């Protein structure tokens, strides 16, 4: 089986995003960018499946600017076998990304596509579900644990009330949640080796996908800022404050 | 505009999250509901009583019993031929189903809508709520998920909608439900509780978390939440996580105990009315957003607080 892992280059999770003064977006100039943390989890899971002998090849794919090559090299250094960059300088919406991924899936025929449940930049939480719909395949979103058995995959999902388990017929789409695994760090020798692994570059036009945006961003603004309140001296003072709020 | 709101339910009861979605939908136009489930006529009757509801579309089929997206999405997409906007609560159920509906309709979804600014214009948080985007759809149909804390709940009673049975679209046959492990609790539900007591990594382990956080929450009739660090370390189940990638809460009072205040955590609770923080580090970022802060060792302060309340 082949596993396809879409990885997105996003603002590093340790960086506090700043809104541009002209309200046109978030300032990403000179900001540290990294692989979306949920996608690291997806790459890690793919590697574990391969290590367990249940997959032969892992293909990482990113849709984004030329710099997304770095993100793909990270995936290769972790253990992916080859990479595809679909180069685009526009901010593609999840629907457009899903359409590009669909075309790649049709070409590559993976048994499993492992995506992040959401990117920490746009927080859309859509791409995996859309890809599954476009391919008319089953989806296991917010995966906490996955088990492969024959031609099916069992996915334990993190849901609002606890956990839910579904069984899907392969080929399937799975999106990762935080508890699926703890991703490894790439070792230095593997980072060196990754430089020699194949990385193909394509463009959205190669797939004949219309990527025109469907949404217009009218403005991006700062949320209301919370002011720090006061610090109280001791528990008695805290009790008095809480009682004044009328909640106890 | 005619909207179709996805009713979240367990085949017996309408879940509260539906009510905020109804309020959002009513700002766009006529409100129709979709109740898809198995043996769920009672849910449809209850849903018809929600204030402001016109028609309830009831699809009763074993294929819909467990809300599998593979089965519900084609049904919703079909009904969208006669509706202009599909509206789902931004719960794990809504987030699982709505994008699938959107893709079937070839429409871009707008996620986690916080306000309705016009027929096709909405605000939504991006970058963990560090920025708010105002977006306008250029499409004929809309697909939205709605943030529960951003809209008042519609009244559960007082409406007089009519229930209409719709044909099922059957079972896609590619997925099946296996089991569900739901945390049983007498406590208020985390996302709708008026008081939330959350604990962080400082709580050490599951026993210590229970020993210190639970009595305080009991005293306050509060729901219990946690930081990701506390969930990852196994102190509490995953559905306790508050934050960018967990649950969004906005209670009257939020207690952050032994939580540092990482941006991902703040994203889930900074719209709380009053934030109360207990942390031994006076420079912890949580104090930058807390209305009331106590710099103290929680292992001393929390039992004392519980006793004195
Ligand atoms: C005002 C505004 C400004 C923005 N500015 C920028 C910007 O400067 N730079 C920027 O990068 N984004 C920016 N975005 C976000 C951009 O539009 C998103 O890429 C797009 O909406 C996809 O959403 P998502 O990544 O949240 O999807 P999600 O559905 O949350 O992503 C889920 C998963 O899908 C996969 N995936 C998603 N996108 C890709 C991809 N491109 N390649 C491979 N896999 C992918 C990943 O596995 C990911 O974990 C901006 C958005 C807005 C509204
Ligand atoms: C992709 C991604 C998504 C994430 N999503 C979320 C999310 O949804 N929600 C979330 O919460 N986090 C999330 N995180 C994690 C987040 O970045 C932080 O790591 C996490 O919130 C830290 O949890 P904490 O505050 O409990 O732990 P810490 O940061 O370790 O803080 C513990 C605090 O306890 C205090 N303390 C220690 N001992 C005592 C004592 N005896 N008395 C009083 N105070 C004490 C310390 O001073 C410290 O401030 C995410 C991270 C990533 C990468």
UniProtKB/TrEMBL annotation, chain A:
It holds the Pfam family ETF. This is Electron transfer flavoprotein subunit beta. InterPro entries: ET-Flavoprotein_bsu_CS, ETF_a/b_N, ETF_b, ETF_beta_N, Rossmann-like_a/b/a_fold. PROSITE patterns: ETF_BETA. It comes from Alteriqipengyuania abyssalis. Belongs to the ETF beta-subunit/FixA family. Keywords: Electron transport, Transport. PANTHER family: ELECTRON TRANSFER FLAVOPROTEIN BETA-SUBUNIT, ELECTRON TRANSFER FLAVOPROTEIN SUBUNIT BETA. Residues 23-211 form the Electron transfer flavoprotein alpha/beta-subunit N-terminal domain. SMART domains: ETF. It comes from the Bacteria.
TrEMBL record, chain B:
SMART domains: ETF. The keyword Amino-acid biosynthesis does not apply. It comes from the Bacteria. Gene3D superfamilies: HUPs, TPP-binding domain. The keyword Transport applies. Keywords: Electron transport, Transport. Residues 3-181 form the Electron transfer flavoprotein alpha/beta-subunit N-terminal domain. Belongs to the ETF alpha-subunit/FixB family. This is Electron transfer flavoprotein subunit alpha/FixB family protein.
């Amino acid at each position: 089986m082949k596993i396809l892992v879409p990885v997105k280059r996003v603002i590093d999770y340790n960086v506090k995003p700043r809104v541009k003064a002209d309200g046109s977006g978030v300032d990403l100039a000179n900001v540290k960018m990294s692989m979306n943390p949920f996608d690291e989890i997806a790459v890690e899971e793919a590697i574990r499946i391969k290590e367990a002998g249940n997959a032969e090849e892992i293909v990482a794919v990113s849709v984004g600017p030329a710099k997304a090559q770095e993100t793909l090299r990270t995936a290769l250094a972790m253990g992916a076998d080859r990479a595809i960059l679909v180069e685009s300088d526009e901010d593609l919406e999840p629907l457009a990304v899903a359409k590009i991924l669909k075309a790649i899936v049709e070409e590559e025929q993976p048994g499993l596509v492992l995506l992040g449940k959401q990117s920490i930049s746009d927080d859309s939480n859509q791409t995996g579900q859309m890809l599954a719909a476009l391919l008319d395949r089953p989806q296991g979103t917010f995966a906490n644990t996955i088990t492969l058995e024959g031609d099916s995959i069992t996915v334990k999902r993190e849901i609002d009330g606890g956990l839910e388990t579904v069984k899907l017929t392969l080929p399937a789409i799975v999106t990762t949640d935080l508890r699926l695994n703890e991703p490894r760090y790439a070792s230095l020798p593997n980072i060196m080796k990754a430089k020699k692994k194949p990385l193909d570059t394509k463009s959205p036009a190669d797939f004949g996908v219309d990527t025109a945006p469907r949404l217009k961003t009218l403005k991006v603004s700062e949320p209301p800022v919370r002011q720090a309140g006061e610090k109280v001296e001791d528990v008695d003072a805290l009790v008095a404050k809480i009682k004044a709020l009328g909640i106890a | 505009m005619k909207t179709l709101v996805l009713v979240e339910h367990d085949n017996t009861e309408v879940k509260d999250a539906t009510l905020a979605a109804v309020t959002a939908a009513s700002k766009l136009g006529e409100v129709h509901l979709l109740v898809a489930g198995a043996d769920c006529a009672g849910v449809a009757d209850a849903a018809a009583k929600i204030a402001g509801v016109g028609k309830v579309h009831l699809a009763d089929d074993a294929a819909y019993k467990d809300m599998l997206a593979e089965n519900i999405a084609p049904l919703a997409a079909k009904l969208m031929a006669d509706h202009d906007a599909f509206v789902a609560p931004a719960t794990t159920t809504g987030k699982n189903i709505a994008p699938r509906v959107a893709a079937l309709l070839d429409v871009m979804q707008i996620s986690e809508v916080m306000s309705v600014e016009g027929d096709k214009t909405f605000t939504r948080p991006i970058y963990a709520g560090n920025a708010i985007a105002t977006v306008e759809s250029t499409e004929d149909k809309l697909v939205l998920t709605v943030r529960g804390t951003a809209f008042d709940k519609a009244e559960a009673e007082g409406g007089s909608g009519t229930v209409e049975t719709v044909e099922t679209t059957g079972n896609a046959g590619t997925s099946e439900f296996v089991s569900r492990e739901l945390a049983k609790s007498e406590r208020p539900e985390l996302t709708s509780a008026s008081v939330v007591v959350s604990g962080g990594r400082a709580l050490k382990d599951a026993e210590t978390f229970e020993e210190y956080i639970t009595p305080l929450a009991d005293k306050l009739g509060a729901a219990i939440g946690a930081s990701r660090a506390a969930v990852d370390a196994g102190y509490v189940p995953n559905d306790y996580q508050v934050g960018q990638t967990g649950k969004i809460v906005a209670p009257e009072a939020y207690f952050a105990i032994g939580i540092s205040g990482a941006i991902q955590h703040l994203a889930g609770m900074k719209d709380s009315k009053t934030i109360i923080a207990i942390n031994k580090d006076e420079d912890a970022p949580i104090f930058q957003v807390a209305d009331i802060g106590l710099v103290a060792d929680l292992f001393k302060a929390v039992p004392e607080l519980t006793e004195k309340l």
